[in-house]
Amino acid sequence: MTGTRKIYIIGFMGSGKSTMGRRLAARMGYQFLDLDDKIEELAGKTIARIFSEDGEEEFRRIEAETLKGLGSDANIIISTGGGTPCHFDNMDYMRETGITVYLKMTPGQLASRLRGSSAERPLLKNIPDGELVSFIGEKLSEREQWYNRAGIIVDGMNADPGLLATMIQSERGY
């Protein structure tokens, strides 16, 4: 994929997409954009509020529209929402317009990061901590068919921005 200038960071909620995206952008001299932040900015309300007032289906429509409306900005790293690749043709779109990087983690690793944050995460809102690993395992198994289509798959617990930058350059044919 020579000449590609967009890099999409995908993975389950809590996998560190925004943190890795920022670190990678700084390392590579790229801009960074968090898709959820952009959605909130354009909608004028939080993701949680969009979910509660308009429902998940409307959120996913807005999400796809926002993703595809980012234009052709060069040298940008985009951290997506956990469900972004799994709806509409978003994964195909990301693969056509850039390099996709999946930060892969186990349900147990994700649950340990997500415990106590269900208030800010609409999909976890009514899930008790004791059922978190099981819920994440089910959701992850549904989503991995999209996540595993990423051009680069790395261990989210041990991902290194320097090594990842090298992998991306290699993927591009530099």
The named CATH superfamily: P-loop containing nucleotide triphosphate hydrolases
The helix fraction, in percent, is 40-55%
Tell me the series of helices and strands, N- to C-terminal: EHEHHHEHEHHEH
Let me know the number of strands: 5
Unreliable runs: none
The count of helical stretches stands at 8
Order of strands across the widest beta sheet? 2-3-1-4-5
CATH hierarchy, class: Alpha Beta
Q: Quickly count the domains.
A: 1
Give the CA-CA distance, first to last residue.
Answer: 10 Å
Q: What does this 3D model show about the protein?
A:
With 174 residues, this protein is of the alpha/beta class. The protein has one domain: Rossmann fold, CATH 3.40.50. It is built from eight helices and five strands; from the N terminus they run βαβαααβαβααβα. The longest helix has 16 residues. The termini are close together. The model has no long low-confidence stretch (mean pLDDT 92).
Comma- or semicolon-separated keywords:
single chain, 174 residues, alpha/beta, Rossmann fold, five-stranded parallel sheet, 8 helices, globular
